[in-house]
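DM between two lab members

TW: hey, do you still have the Gamma-glutamylcyclotransferase entry open?
JB: yeah, one sec
JB: this one, 139 aa:
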Amino acid sequence: MSQLPFFVYGTLLRGERNHDIFLRGRTLSETPAILTGALLYAGPGYPYAVEAPEEGGVVHGTLVTADPAAYTRLVAALDHLEEYTPGDPANLYERVARDVTRLTDATRIRAWVYVAAPAVATELRATGTLINNGNWHPL
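TW: and the structure you got?
JB:
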């Protein structure tokens, strides 16, 4: 597996409940970034990015570069947090490699992104609450 950075947009953002639990002390850098071609939906206490390249949405978040010494453990911990198991049709999220744009210099960087799994995405498109500005802020 490539040691790609991660694009986070919900509870893993600095100041949110999972940042210190999973990322604190395990990163080399955290910089503002955007994911284009996706829409953000409210979930039960956390958001979902839904891929929608035809709709031109933008999700705001942070590009996180992990400390290489912590990378393997961090991927396993984030996969568990996001309830992602490769190939499992019951996944809530899928971990996919996508290009994101680092806002400090407009550089496009390939990163891991947890997006809504297909069944979840279908349900969100039908009945979910769209976060129009692409920024998640818990209530």
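TW: got it. The mean pLDDT is 93. The radius of gyration is 14 Å.
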